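W.,

You were right to be curious about this one. When I first looked at the sequence I had no strong expectations either way, so I just let the prediction run and decided to look at it fresh. Below is the sequence, 95 residues in total, followed by the output.
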Amino acid sequence: MAKNLSCGCCGCGFMTWKGYVDQDQDKGFGICRKCQDWHEELNNEQLDKIGATLREALNNANTVKWDGLDLETRRLLAMEAVSEGMVTWSFGGRQ
């Protein structure tokens, strides 16, 4: 059943859609599709930057291996590097 919520990011009202997953926010709030897309784009951009930093630290043989990985795997490895504390990542404000 669709619900009418306010976006906790941009403040706009929106209706939920099939497959919508509630976020852990105050009752009556969620994240609209536009903001979800923006967050995903920003996250992927940051993960790609982390991946580039990781790549720079590799030796030649491992650089070749890294370059052979698909984008999703490189992003997963970047997230793992953040989780393991090998690199730090901070959230910035919307610009």
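Here's what jumped out at me. Residues 1-31 form one domain. And, maybe more interesting for your project: The helical segments are 33-56, 60-68, 71-83.

Coffee later to discuss?

I.
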